[in-house]
Every structure is written in structure tokens, then in C-alpha cells.
Amino acid sequence: MSVFIHPTSIVETDDIGDGTYIGPYCYVTKRSVIGKNCNLVAYCSIGTPGEHPHDPDDRGGMVYIDDETEIREFVTVNSPIFGPHTKVGFHSYLMTKSHVGHDAVLGHHTVLSSMSIVGGHTVIGNYTYMGLNATTHQRSIIGSFCMIGANAFFKGESPSGVIWAGVPASPIKINLVGLDRHASSNEHHYIIDAATKFISKWPKR
């Protein structure tokens, strides 16, 4: 297998896995590691400097895009500023115009819908889904098997298996569909129990 790079793209890194396709007008900096069988469709930007208003000293970390990840048009993934990496997990799907901020970590099978924004330092677990135009505040922590609803603004911490909606986002129910599809039998009961307790304690509006 080989790597395909469209002649209109600027790719500064040689660290690209077999079977990866980099389409037209992409920019991939030398601070990027791209895994196997990834698909960078077009016009995406990977490894550019992290956005920060105070121009802190950059520690020179890397962006890691794990195997079998699909990155659609106009997606941006910024390099880390404060830590060793910004990371997108295995088999993730980043839809058009979504953004991953500096020092963020996305778990395996993460889905970012169009126009969704992952703030800097955010940590997202496996099989979590961000809806259209959803946003996380910087340094938020979201567990696995969660869903952040369309147009929601999430700030804080979420256990696994919770669906959030609204501005600011509130937990509305357990993500039973996601758990049934992806969680192991051992995880299933534990996650539902913890998520139920968390939601029951959330202040009612």
C-alpha cells in the first residue's frame, strides 16, 4: 500500500501511514503524525499552531491522527501548546468545518458533526458524538458513549453514557442506544448505574 498526496496539498511531514489519502488543498505541518488508512478529503489543516490570546511559549508537541480516521473539508486540528500532544483517536470521523483545539484528546470512534468545536485541553472518551454546531469549553472532560446535542455548549465534566443538551448544556438522559451499540456487557451496567446517579443529582431548572 502507498500514500496518496494530491499535488495541490502542502505536506511537511513524512510520518504518514500506509493507505492514507490526502486530497486537494490540505496543509499538514511537520508537527503531525498521520496513521494508516486515513482519509483527509480536502481543504483541511492539521498541526497548525494552537490558538491562544496570550502567545505562550510553545513546547513543541505533536498532533497524532490515529488509524482509519476520516477528516472532511475545512477541518482544523491545532498543535498542542502546553503538553505533548493533540490527539484524534482510531476510526474517528471529523465532519466539515469542525475544529479540534490545542492539547485536546479525542478517544477512539469519536464523531464531530459539522461546525462542532472542541476547546483546548478538552478530553473526550471513546464512542462519543458531538452534534451539529456543539461546543466544549476548554479543559472540559467528557466520558465515553456520551452525546453532546446540536447547538449545545458543554462546560465541566461528564461521566460516560450521558446525553447533554442546551446552553449551558444539562444532562437529559442516558445514551442507551450508544451503549447498546458499543459498550461491552461488563461496561453496560456500571455506566448506566453511574450515569443515573449523576443525572438524578443534577440541579433542575
| CATH homologous superfamily label | Hexapeptide repeat proteins
Measure the end-to-end span.
Answer: 55 Å
What's the CATH topology name? UDP N-Acetylglucosamine Acyltransferase, domain 1
The arrangement of helices and strands along the chain is EEEEEEEEEEEEEEEEEEEEEEEEEHH
| Major sheet characteristics | 10 strands, mixed
The chain-level mean pLDDT equals 95
Number of domains: 1
Secondary-structure arrangement, i.e. CATH architecture: 3 Solenoid
What ranges have pLDDT less than 50 throughout 5 or more consecutive residues? none
Could you name the CATH class?
Answer: Mainly Beta
Shape: globular
Helix content: 10-25%
Q: In what range is the share of β-strand residues?
A: 25-35%
Which strand order spans the largest sheet, edge to edge or round the barrel? 1-3-6-9-12-15-18-21-24-25
Supply the key terms.
10-stranded mixed sheet, 2 helices, 8-stranded parallel sheet, globular, 205 residues, UDP N-Acetylglucosamine Acyltransferase, domain 1, mainly beta
List the helices and strands and how they pair.
Blueprint: E1 4-5, E2 10-11, E3 21-22, E4 27-28, E5 32-34, E6 39-40, E7 45-48, E8 62-65, E9 70-71, E10 76-78, E11 85-88, E12 93-94, E13 99-100, E14 105-106, E15 111-112, E16 117-118, E17 123-124, E18 129-130, E19 135-136, E20 141-142, E21 147-148, E22 153-154, E23 157-158, E24 162-165, E25 170-174, H1 176-182, H2 185-201
Parallel strand pairs: 1-3, 2-4, 3-6, 4-7, 5-8, 6-9, 7-10, 8-11, 9-12, 10-13, 11-14, 12-15, 13-16, 14-17, 15-18, 16-19, 17-20, 18-21, 19-22, 20-23, 21-24
Antiparallel strand pairs: 24-25
